[in-house]
Amino acid sequence: MNNVVEISEVSKSYEDVKALKEISFEVEKGELFGLIGPDGAGKTTLFRILTTLLVPDSGEAKVLGMDVVENYREIRPILGYMPGRFSLYQDLSVEENIRFFASVFGTTLEENYDLVKPIYQQLEPFKNRLAGALSGGMKQKLALSCALIHKPELLILDEPTTGVDAVSRKEFWEMLHLLKHQGITILASTPYMDEADQCDRVALMQNGKILKISTPDEVAQSFSSTLYGIRSKHRFQLIQVLREYQYVKSVQPFGESVHYADHRNDPDTDDILRYLSTHGVEDAEIKKIDSNIEDTFMELMQQEESHA
Amino acid sequence: MPEVAIQTRDLTKKFGDFTAVNQISFDVRRGEIFGFLGANGAGKTTAIKMLTGLLSPTSGEGSVAGHDIHSESEAIKKKIGYMSQRFSLYDDLTVKENIRFYGGVYGLSRHILRSKYDEILEKVDLKDEIDSRVGSLPLGWKQKLAFSIALLHEPKIVFLDEPTGGVDPITRRQFWEMIYKASEDGVTVFVTTHYMDEAEYCDRVSIMVDGKIEALDSPVELKRSFSAKSIEEVFIELARGAENSDG
Q: Which of B138, B131, B140 lies closest to B98 in space, CA to CA?
């Protein structure tokens, strides 16, 4: 049995809001799997179902072959869960928090010290500090240590990197890679597309649906058209003028360039530049570029909307 | 309105022995989209409080919208707009009530408020939601509404604190197009964010480490001079050794 997580046609509604619409996917043993989508996509609802905190309206979810509704007692001890809002006791110290979580799961800090060591070691100089007085990046490390202290088979992390700075985010993903190499299966969510590359596979989620599941590279490359990056000092004007072009398929600002796709198969880029120039954008530069995961995400979102 | 919207010279703030902001000097041009980056604890918030008239500097000079930050903080407050992802709108008030409330705070006449009101609903496409509680709106709409309200009193400079966190990539781009539009209209946009891909949308970006500005240039130039593929790489290179980092 190679799948740690198996989700099959799971739906969940809150009154008239459909949070999950027949979601299905599997996570393999030892995989680092990313659930990528904005706020309101349904990521937290799905995690609450997997952690046995919510019952699905329909469909089936299993963790290591056990049903999340029938076997919740057996599932809970083998899960490590780091919720989106910090789960720590603010008025306990760093050490008291980790010892508390260890005792809840019938273990001790000493027994599983090796597993948490790379992370917890960084906190030990502050072990007497109250959790509430830690910085965001340190709270995040403590929360991860607490979720790991009972040596779970599956680690579920709900937006662990939201609100922390780029250095802490990078360190956090490095820690997850270490844990993965120790054989722990990891399911993590993030609203940030640029974190997809850290995962073995990702599911793109939007409005309670999965738009695509694949490796990050494959997702990035699955954009359906040739993509061009166009630059000009007059970005706002460039976007407006491109949208009016007769062959336009999509125009999306991407920082310093604009990503442009055309309805023609192999458009002459000089034609595009000439069009821009006659409409007041004279300094434009254009080149073919590789699509990235956000290009694909947006294209899938638009397809989804046009079907709806 | 001068061509320089924000200017600082050796701006410094100390709290006891701790120097939160250490002699920072920079200019922001009128209409520029300026990204203000730094790790948690680098001194960004303290710097912004000085620029928005909420905290007086220990030493150094600064002017915002042509007013001195030491002596004219009240004049500055009237000429700036502020939007934070978390605190800008009242969730328990409706869209209409939020607009009216902020109109009142900034002393707009009933007549002006009326025209602004239609303009905002048009721009944000919220006509059908005027009587909805803001708390019930999707995050993307809230952000666009908050930005429009921050521009209600036609400020010269608008400060945006992590404006687009958590929304889908299409909504996020719609938001950035609103920022580009404001910049076209001559509004200076001062953005702080943890998300480095947001920095790529700015005309210029500064990176603060341990109270100092360690880099300031356009995203293209920063990437070139650090031989980096992204602003994120530049940031990590600069911030990794920080003493007051969030690690």
A: B131
Q: In the structure encoding, which two tokens stand for residue B103, read together?
A: 């109109």
Q: From the CA of B86, how many Å to the nearest CA of chain A?
A: 12
Phi, psi of B82 (to 5 degrees): -140, 135
- B200: nearest Cα among B171, B185, B220: B220
Cβ separation of B176 and A302 shorter than 8 Å? no
Is ipTM over 0.90? Answer: no
* Global pTM value: 0.90
CATH numbers and ranges of domains, chain A: 3-217 (3.40.50.300), 224-290 (3.30.70.100)
Residues in chain B with CB shorter than 8 Å from the CB of A38 are: 139-140, 166-169, 171
Q: Which of B177, B69, B53 is nearest to B163 (CA)?
A: B177
Q: Rounded to whole angstroms, how far apart are CA atoms A77 and B124?
A: 47
Q: Which helix (H) or strand (E) holds A75?
A: helix A72-75
Helices A166-181 and A136-148: angle between axes, nearest 10 degrees: 10
Note whether B246 contacts A191, CB cutoff 8 Å. no
In DSSP notation, B92-148 reads TSBHHHHHHHHHHHTT--HHHHHHHHHHHHHHHT-GGGTTSBGGGS-HHHHHHHHHH
Q: A297: nearest CA in chain B?
A: B169
Distance of CA A6 to the CA centre of its chain: 18
CA distance to partner chain A, nearest, from residue B236 (Å):
6
Residue ranges, chain B, pLDDT below 50: 246-247
Interface probe for A, chosen from B194, B205, B210, B244 (most Cβ of A below 10 Å), is B194
Interface of A with B in 239-298 (CB under 8 A): 239, 252-256, 294, 297-298
Could A167 and B138 be called an inter-chain contact, meaning their C-beta atoms sit closer than 8 Å?
no
A192/B195 CB distance under 8 A = yes
Q: What is the pLDDT of residues A275-299, one digit of tens each?
A: 999 999 999 999 999 999 999 999 9
pLDDT value for B87:
66
A274 HSE (CA, 13 A, CB side): 5
Residues A115-137 pLDDT 10s: 999 999 999 999 999 999 988 88
Q: Parallel, antiparallel, or unpaired: how do β-strands B188-192 and B157-161 relate?
A: parallel
Q: Closest to B168 (Cβ–Cβ): which among A137, A170, A301?
A: A301
